[in-house]
Structure prediction request, 253 residues.
Amino acid sequence: MEDVVRLNAVRKVYGNQRTGVEALRGVTIGFPRGSFTAVMGPSGSGKSTFLHCAAGLDKPTSGTVTLDGQELTGLREKALTILRRERIGFIFQSFNLLPALTVQQNITLPLRLAGRKPDRARLTEVINRVGLADRRKHLPAELSGGQQQRVAIARALVTRPAVIFADEPTGALDTHTAREVLDLMLESVHRHGQTVVMVTHDPMAAAYAHRVVFLADGQLAGELRNPTADTIAERMTHLGAWADRSRTEKIGA
Ligand code: ADP
Prediction:
């Protein structure tokens, strides 16, 4: 299957090349179109760095990242901003909604930032899909956490991005609401052929994915296909040091 996003030998060093922290140590991986991948690993293993590099939010120190065959790593900031806006959706743990804007205004923000007029039919479709038709005019503060995350998902879907990057999207939600949000992401994969890459520490959330890839100490440390919460939890115990920020633990997988 064709890869929408590819990372090739991606290294990321924070700070000085010689004395800095090597957060990613040569990561090579592809994400096929219409796939749902969860990225897991202990604290400090490089998950956020990985997501930021893959999404063009941060530049690798070396190596390349391509989106639909186009190399992000060679683009200037302006071209990268446009590409991110048009081809990539983001969902964060903290929702990142603008408090003064209504649900509808938050959802259409990426389009307006791109100077595009929101298409009425598309907007209605997206709002209906996330079940917020009767909340269009509400402000984020008037919504529950789950509803706010559904606004963020609608915002990530409205531009029909090729790939959606999600950073702990269910981290602030209760189990029931988390499942609703995960179902929505899975639906965008199965029905609309979008590609989802989700960082999570939660085996239940990761079990929604087709594949779980494990990071340890800035390197890939194996993967699971068609995972279950049990097989994921099993693997996690082998990787060890899930709560340890010190990055001293070595790969056990
Ligand atoms: P994770 O998301 O798995 O917790 P991160 O990608 O946040 O891991 O961090 C990987 C490593 O890089 C850690 O050792 C972290 O301390 C370091 N790191 C992350 N961001 C920065 C930064 N901006 N400056 C310096 N070091 C950083």
Observations:
- Residues 244-253 have pLDDT under 50 and may be disordered.
- The helical segments are 47-54, 77-87, 103-113, 120-129, 145-157, 175-190, 203-206, 229-239.
- The first strand starts at residue 3 and ends at 14.
- The radius of gyration is 18 Å.
